[in-house]
Amino acid sequence: MPYSSFREEELLARIKWFIQLRWIFLTGLILTVLIANKIFRVELPFSKIFLVGGVIFLYNLSFYIFHIFFSSLLSDNLKLMRIEANFQISLDLVALTFLLHFSGGVENPFIFFYLFHAIIGSILLSRKEVWVQSILGIGLFFILTILEYFQIIPHYHLKGFFPAEIHKNPLYVLVVCAVLAGVVFAIIYIASSIVQSLREREKELFLTKNMLQKKSEDLEATNLKLIEKQKQLVQSEKLASLGQLVSGIAHEINNPVQFILGNMGIVKEAFESLIPILDVYHQREPNFTVARLKYPFFKEHINTLIQDMTRGGERIRDIIKDLKAFARTDEERMDEEVDLNEVVQVCVRLVHNKVKHYQLEMELEEDLPKLKGNERKLEQVVIANLINACEALAGRNNGKIKISTSSVNNGQEVILAISDNGPGMEEAVKERIFDPFFTTKQRTGGTGLGLSVTYGIIKEHNGYIEIESELGKGTSFIYHLPVDRSAG
After folding, report:
1. Quick one: which of 135, 147, 351, 482 could link to 153 by a disulfide (CB 3.0–4.6 Å)?
2. Domain tally for the chain?
C-alpha cells in the first residue's frame, strides 16, 4: 500500500473521530447550560444558545449520515477529505463564536475552546491550513469583541462573575485578545511542529515497514524456491539412482537373454533335423505324442512356437537396449545427432505395456531432419507425455493416442505432436501445468515434476511447447524444436 493511501485512511478515520467528538461537545454544552441556569442562576439567552447547538447538531448529523452512505467518495480522494476537514473546522469556529457571543463574549472563560480547534487542526490539516483556520478563529473573536465593544451588537453579561462594563475596558479586552492570540499561535507552532515531525517519522516507519514486508515476501519466495530446488534435487537423485538400478538390471537380464536367443537357433536346427526321424517313428506308431501333443499337431506348430519364442526374446533384448540407452549418464551432452522418429519408436516400445490398451496412430515424416540435442532427455519428454496420455485415457474404451512428426521452415525446425482424446484440461490447469510440483494426481501420488522437467528440457533445446486442449475432446502437446539449437 502506498503512503498516500495510508494518509487517506488515517485522515478519514480522524474526520470520523472529529464527528464523534462533536457529539460529546453537544452533550457537554447541554450540561453546562443546565448547571449555569439551575445552580448558578446565570441569566443568558438560553433559547439562542440551544438554537446554535441545534445548528451544530444538524450539520454534525449531516456529516455523520454522509460518512455512513457516501464514505466511498472520500476513501480515495485526499484532497476532498482535506476540504471537508477544513469545512467542518470553519463551521465549528463560526458556531463557537456565536456561542461565546450569547454567553458573555470576552467575559466567557470558554474562549480558550479556540485552542481545541488549533490542536485538532494540527492533527487533521497541513501546517498552512492550520494557520489559516487559526487566523479565521482569532479574527472571528476579534470581530465579536470589537462589535460588542462599540455596541454594534448587544453584549450578554455574565452576572455575578464579572463587572458589568468589563467588556468595555480596553486594557482588559486587549490583554484577553493578545493572550488568546499568543497562546493559540504558540499552540499551533508547537503542535504543528510536533505533528509534522511525527508524520515524517510515521512516513519513515511506514516505508521501512513496507520495505521489510517486501524483503520478507522476497525471502519467503526465495525460501520456497530453495525448498522446490531441494525437492527437485532429491527427485533427481532418486531418478539417478533409479537409472543406475535400471542399467544394472538391464545388464543382468541381457546376458541370459542373449544366451536364450543364441540357443533358439540351435533348437530350431535340432528340430529340423529331428523331424524326418520323428516322421519315420510316426509311421510305426501313429498315436505317439510329443510333450503331450499329438505328433501331427506338434509338427504343424513347432516352427511357429520357436518363432514366437525368438520374437519374444528379441523384444526383451530391444527393451533392454532401450532401457540401457535411457539410463545412460551422459545427459549433459547437447550435441548429439538425434533422430526424433527413432526417439518416438524407442519410447513407444518402452511404454508398450501402457499404450497397448489404446489405439495408437503414428504419422512419422520420412527423412525427418536430425536435430542437435540430447537423445535421452528427449526420450524422457516423450515417455512422460505418453504416460500422461495413457492416464488421461484410463477407463475409456475408445481411447486414442496419435503421434506425429514433421519439419517446417525449410527443415530448420521439427515438430512433435502427441494427442489424446481424453477429458481435456480446464483453463486454470492449463495455465499452471508447467509449474513445479503442480499435479492433478494427488490421489495417485504424482510429484508434479514431470511436465516441469519436460518444459525445462524443451527450453534447453531452445524450443517451445504449445498446448491445445478442449474439455471433453482431448489434449495435444506440440513440441517445436530447432534443428540447430544454437540458432534457436
Report:
1. 147
2. 3
Which residue carries 501445468 as its cell? 433
DSSP string, 320-338: HHHHHHHT-S-TT---EEE
Cell of 482: 530447432
C-alpha cell at 226: 530453495
Instruction: List C-alpha distances in Å: 153 to 129, 150, 303.
Output: 30, 8, 134
Furthest-apart CA atoms within the chain: distance in Å: 162
Cell numbers 438560553: residue: 46
A 10 A CB-CB count for 326 gives: 19
Instruction: Report how far residue 266's alpha carbon sits from residue 53's, in angstroms, rounded to the nearest whole number.
Output: 121
Kindly state whether residue 233 falls inside one of the protein's structural domains.
Answer: no
pLDDT per position as a tens digit, 5-17 = 446 677 888 889 9
Whether 417 and 397 map to the same domain: the answer is yes
Query: Which range in 28-32, 41-45, 296-300 is most confidently predicted, on average pLDDT?
Result: 28-32
Q: Do the domain assignments include residue 235?
A: no
C-alpha to C-alpha distances, 262 to 67, 267, 331, 352, nearest whole angstrom = 94, 9, 33, 25
85, 158: one domain: yes
The whole model's pTM is what? Answer: 0.47
> Is 404 contained in some domain?
yes
Q: Which of the listed residues 126, 150, 168 is the one where a domain comes to its end?
A: 168
What digits encode the pLDDT tens for the residues 260-308?
877 888 888 888 888 888 888 888 888 888 877 788 888 888 888 888 8
Using the CB atoms, write b or e for 96-110: b if 16+ within 10 Å.
Answer: bbbbbbbbbbbbbee
Same domain assignment for residues 315 and 359: no
Shared domain for 41 and 105, answered yes or no, is yes
Domain range for 414 = 336-487
Q: Is residue 209, in this structure, part of any structural domain at all?
A: no
DSSP states of 374-398 as a string?
-HHHHHHHHHHHHHHHHHHTTT-TT
Q: Are strands 413-420 and 474-482 parallel, antiparallel or unpaired?
A: antiparallel
